[in-house]
Hints:
Layout lengths: L21 H21 L1 H11 L10 H18 L1 H11 L1 H19 L5 H15 L2 H12 L5 H33 L7 H21 L6 H32 L3 H22 L5 H4 L2 H32 L3 H31 L4 H25 L5 H29 L5 H30 L3 H19 L6 H4 L2 H4 L4
Amino acid sequence: MQDAPEDTPSPAPAGRRRLLQPWHTLWLLLLLGWTVSAADRAVTGPVVTWMIDNGVGFLADARHPHALGGLIGGLFFAGYMLTQFPGGYLGDRHGHRTLIVVSLVWAGAATIATGLAGGLVAFIVLRVVTGLGEGAFYSNDRTLITAVTPERHRSLGMGVVITGLALGITVATVFTPHFIGIGQHVLPRAEAWRMAFWILGVATLAAALLLAVRFRAHLRARAVIRATLRLAAYSAVSLALIMAVYLLGDRAGVSGLWIALLEVALAIALVLFALVRKGAELGPVLKDRDLNLIYLANIAILWNLWFFSFWSVSIVAGAAHSSFMSAALTAGFNAGAGLLGFPAGGWLSDRTRRRGWSRKSVMLSCTGVQALLTVAFAWYLTAAARPTLWIMGLLLFTASLFFNALQPVGHAWTAEIAEPRMRGSAFGMQNLIGEMGAVLAPAVGGALRDRTGGWTAALWLDAAIVAAGFALLAAVRARTPARTTAAPAAATVP
């Protein structure tokens, strides 16, 4: 079902080149969407840390507050993971712009509601609900960029837009203490953390309103209502399963690692359910050899992303025996590299493709260098008697630079392989499977740290997983420019 006009890339009029093209405006709008949604998901960490440090809120009496805080983060990603594929599937049917607006409104409302939570279980439920809504953004954003951007600029568009992820994480990390400070002026000190969720939630709703106004020619009330109801139905089932696993596991005294593994099992069950129920319809997405290899390789990508996002400060502080602030500034090189790596990787991929290279060549080059630098980082922390901050910062920055550069290349590669009418479903399945790495990496890394007393085992495991991802990508068949230039013209995007 299509509820909006067809979109195809349209070049600038012959004889003149405009500096600002229509797809550039779309990139900026979607970048804004990424920024606010990433801030909504990243704010949990700083807020939980503030609660623990100040002995307030529902974490004040927890026996293992850091472990519980990490589990809350993992449960968010469990929700985010389980609506990746349904969100893309619904976008293919009700409109990708429709799902983007629904996702942002949902995330903003759930983030505001999180600031009203009265206890631990309510807080967890609302964080999971936020993740369920945000899970519909990625696949529709990637599909929309593919449809409206000329192929020669497609990977650059992917990179520019997803820079909002790095911006949003930075906003949440840097400004949450200031948001809480504002809260202390108008709320009791123990409740000041709520202000961070309210400010970011309102910002997300404002961004959703802006996108809705700009997308109004493609939005239909009937499609918005049907998409919202169907996403809510998927989410209700997912929420019940996620919370059942958490509550039963908590009552049985199961560790956070095992709870994370059970949440991943839910994602595997969802994939199998889709294969059984809609195998014929989704065959181009679920049964394509190359797409499945990319899906599996995405586990390594998101494992590495969230292993370092969760634990880089602790890794640096433990290795260099430095202060928390010094470790945070050094670890910041890992996140900051995304501001350069995302657009640079997209630009490089498009430029080399115009010269006859395949996306695979660029993807393997970036992944191979990142794997070597990850091994170098693990070896340095193993071999050095007293690792220095500047060497760790340099290794983190360069590895993250290539790591962030490879992601828009991979997104453009998926778009080339997937059938145009199924791109939303393909991107959704890619991130559904990939997010298994995001759910597991913090828990597995933390468990290895507790068991071994250091981070080297977890770092070597991360390096091995990155290398395994390289091997999977090497097995994907390359798509040369001659085989894919006609694809965008056939694309339709609701």
